[in-house]
Amino acid sequence: MCIFLCMGGNSTTWMNTAVLVTCIRNFRRNRGPVSGILKGYVGLSTAIFTDLCSALFSDDPAKFLIMLALVPFAVCLTAIFFLREIPQSTSVAVEKEESRYFAIFNIVAVVVAVYLLVYDLISPTNQVFSLVFAVILLILLASPLGVPIYSLVKSWRLGGFEADMERQEPLLKEETTAAAAEKKEVVTEEAAAAVVEEVAVVEKNRPAIGEEHTIFEAMRTWDFWILFVSFLCGVGTGMAVMNNMAQIGLALGHADVSIFISLTSIWGFFGRIISGSVSEYFLKKAGTPGPLWNAASQILMAVGFLLMALALPGCLYMGSIVVGICYGVRVAATVPIASELFGLKYYGLLYNILILNLPIGSFLFSGLLAGYLYDTQATPTPGGGNTCVGAHCYGLVFVIMAIASVIGFGLDVLLAIRTKNIYTKIFTSRKSKKPSTASNGQ
User: Which residues contact 307 (CB under 8 A, 6 or more apart)?
Assistant: First the structure.
């Protein structure tokens, strides 16, 4: 079993990295929605496979295992032929069209999430009803394929591959502009003094925030470690709640904790979807720094932990929703932030370094903090082991995690202040390119 889990975990990381990095590079002007959609479906995947298992293979788990072995393999094999980088476009029309397509993807994802939630609440036992549910779910999951098919048919109607030629044309113009800028820079450097040239070489070897960084160059910056530690404060505390939800529910007097697990999962999905689209919208409209959304999620998560620490009536319902949303925001929003600060050239390795926080945070907050403090409050049981009932079981754990969330909030605010100029440049560059691109199209 350990070998299978190791193979499955590694295969998931390979596919996740390939899909995420390629899509972020292909849709650079919609990084937020891309991250939200991809991370949202990752969050829904457990519910999708679990509900399909209960609907189709409740009486034969062996068939479900066969499906788990074959379906992901078939999807990955099919993705080989389509997963590639494409030429970038600076056309305003293309950008608006992409935004509409991502809005459709978001709507479909929300429909799937609501559909799964309704099915879980109904919990039907009729075999025919379960079969109908599975068929409709598969249709919903396949429906986003209509977007690329529609786009392909539309390009054919407009005259073959004219759209592809339009995509490449702005690239040539950008290259010409870049070449002219390089020539001008060379002339300036030749006229400068030797000391200025040495300073320029040093600055070139140390890229500024917003430029392409190798992983070692990124790790030499304060901004990387601020992002890393704040990410640890967010995902570590969130995973501690999700990993210990069963014991937390029992400690607070809830015999059935399945509803809290579902609330955390479903609202985590909505947090990922909403944060991706909202952060990208405000970046385009006002140049709002991405870390501010992480800061907002951290302070709300601290409130959720304090609610659960007080053990007020209904606090676990509200706390599960708040933690789910904030954890989803944290996971989805960090993806575009890292690419905006450190570039896309080495983004695959950078992304995997950042998500090391998932096992590290789970170990620190769930394994050490929650496990140790729970054991100190628990009483031994006759059959071996221990148990604890009452608000005191996890009260101190929630307070410490609320403090960690406040620390993460401070780090995110600090990162937003340090990177404000970068997001201002992104906003002004996009705003200045739109009129020029529109005039070139006319």
Answer: 315, 318, 319, 322
Task: Render 400-433 in DSSP notation, one character per residue.
Answer: HHHHHHHHHHHHHHHHHHHTHHHHHHHHHHHHHH
Please state, in angstroms and rounded to a whole number, the distance separating the CA atoms of residues 147 and 106.
Answer: 12
Question: Which residue in the block uniquely carries the two structure tokens 């720094």?
Answer: 289
- Average pLDDT of the chain, as a whole number: 80
- How many CA atoms are closer than 13 Å to the CA of 418, on its beta-carbon side? 19
Is pLDDT of 215 > 90?
A: no
Q: Which residues contact 297 (CB under 8 A, 6 or more apart)?
A: 234, 271, 275, 325, 326, 327, 329, 330, 333
Other beta carbons within 10 Å of 61: 10
- The pTM of the full predicted model, rounded to 2 decimals, is 0.77
Is residue 34 within 8 A of residue 110, CB to CB? The reply is: no
Phi, psi dihedral angles at 31 (to 5 degrees): -65, -35
Strands (DSSP E) found in 274-420: 379-380, 386-387
Task: Round to whole Å and give the CA distance between 104 and 411.
Answer: 34
Q: Can you give the pLDDT at residue 159? A: 62
Confidence of residue 249 (pLDDT cuts 50, 70, 90): confident
3-state secondary structure of 399: helix
Closest CA to 283 of 347, 213, 337, 332: 337
